[in-house]
UniProtKB/TrEMBL annotation:
Protein name: RNA polymerase sigma-70 factor (ECF subfamily)
Pfam family, one: Sigma70_r2
Signal peptide location: none
Keyword set, alphabetical order: Sigma factor, Transcription, Transcription regulation
GO molecular function terms listed in the Swiss-Prot or TrEMBL record: DNA binding; sigma factor activity
Organism per entry: Chitinophaga ginsengisoli
Domain RNA polymerase sigma-70 region: 32-93
Domain of life (superkingdom): Bacteria
Annotated GO biological process: DNA-templated transcription initiation
Amino acid sequence: MVNNEQIRILFDRICRDEEMQAYKALYSLLCSRLIHFSASIVYSYHLAEEIVSDVFVMLWQKRRQLQHVRNPLVYLYVSTKNLSLNSLQQQKKHQHATLDMLDVNALSILPDAEHNLISAEVSLKIEQAICSLPARCQLIFRLVKLDGLKYNEVATLLEISSKTVDAQLAIAVKKITQAIRLDLSTDQVNAYYKIGQ
């Protein structure tokens, strides 16, 4: 899970001190997650890599103007979403691009089984249960439980209410728990994603 305080410190060092080492560290920390997020929108890892690269280039170019940003993680996700949707609209001039057209396979990032003290087999079963969720529900679950965004941050990013985030997350947890109930206890699933903490 991404550490918001670490991201904020790195972002501040980039904006305030123009520190290239902090820039590289922030890129390394968030690159994979942002690429997966972008790829779920544009259906292309190659294009998603370009988009995330563009997001970080813009961050460096505008670093002095971004000192006021209070939540760098949300800022970077929103920037990635906007560039992804713009790119998709440029590719499909006549088709309206929205987050409802997600490629849910691109969202898939297996949590580190060793870090969570859970077997690779169990980790795979949980991932399969997550992949069976509807696209929007799956995205919300991943942003909250895997990327560590708060409900209000996800609501801002996806332009929905916090209550919708809460409802979708409850649906996701219930479906995942039901899907793997034969193999895992609810406590194991909750411990795996640190639900309720």
